[in-house]
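Troubleshooting: if your tokenizer reports a length mismatch, compare your output against this known-good record of 363 residues.
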Amino acid sequence: MATVSGVNPSPNCLLCGLEISSMIYSQRVNPTCSGVLFRENQWKHYKKDKLEHVMVPSKEVEEVDFAKYPSMWSCTCRAIIKGPNTKYFLSGITVTGEHYTDPYFIPKDRGIARIGGRTKNPQYYSGTFVQFYAASIKRQLNRFKGQNVGFVVHAHCWALLNHIIPTTLVEKKFEKFVRAARKYWRDHEEWGIYDYSLRSWKHHGSIGVHPGFEHGCDIYKNPFIVPEVRKAIQKAINSATKTKDKCIRSRCSPIPLEVAIMIAEWTCPIDYTPADVKNTRNMLSAWHWTLPDWFWKRRLKEDIFIELISFRESNHSIDWQALRLDLMGLVSDREWYLYSGLPNRERVLGFMTAIKANFLKTS
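Known-good structure output:
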């Protein structure tokens, strides 16, 4: 496919609005350089490979926690592509930056992700890759007529969207979904955002006083993968059997449940602190009390923990009380919470929910 001349519009994630190019500089590394992803433990065995394209399953990228370079999540993208004579389709995943004049190349197969390879004149074979230009949230440029255009979405934002609306439904009506998303961003003008002060602060090694959050949270944190939440869930799974055995062996508490709840509400009020959580944990451990679900739901906004959905649906063996205490311990620690990905997740989920509403109106 022929290329077109002129400066291309900056790619923005259709789901979270973030300007893709801004993310490259949030750490002291250019994520598009060959071998950067190979520093992650699960892919370090690719370091010595001389392959032109290193490909892995897309699911592997969606589930990874980028421990070495956390901002890498923002450069792993898919595209919703439409050709001059084709309908919209979802691409695979690639690591991308900003191409001022050149088109992008991305795996055609949604199940494939390119995580590295040769950077000097690589050949993007038409059978494996598709060429496209980043589409604009506003009106498309006339010079892209007859070309493939694609709306870029973060791979992790796409995975997160599936918790708001089944992506299988979205793909059946891609054109309406794209229209709904563009309408939302045009009405709100929050697309293409970046936080220059925070980005600069991170790029310079987090030296000096923190500049604060221009958009209310760290927008460069992965909204889908929050490692500490995953660890808390795994801990609760591991302790489920032990807790069950302990309950069988323990004596029954002589205190009625109603009284236990009154004591627990006094120990852990709605507006709780880390100390309150610790005291509640010690009390429940000493008395072997199991409090009802409503007690925890009044204190923990569980909707934001999308990781819990599959466990509820599968009736998986898990120590829910211990898990909720651990999650409450995390969110009550403001120093941890503000710099975690949860506030950004809440921000992005808000966008997705509004886009979903637009989409359902037109479906």
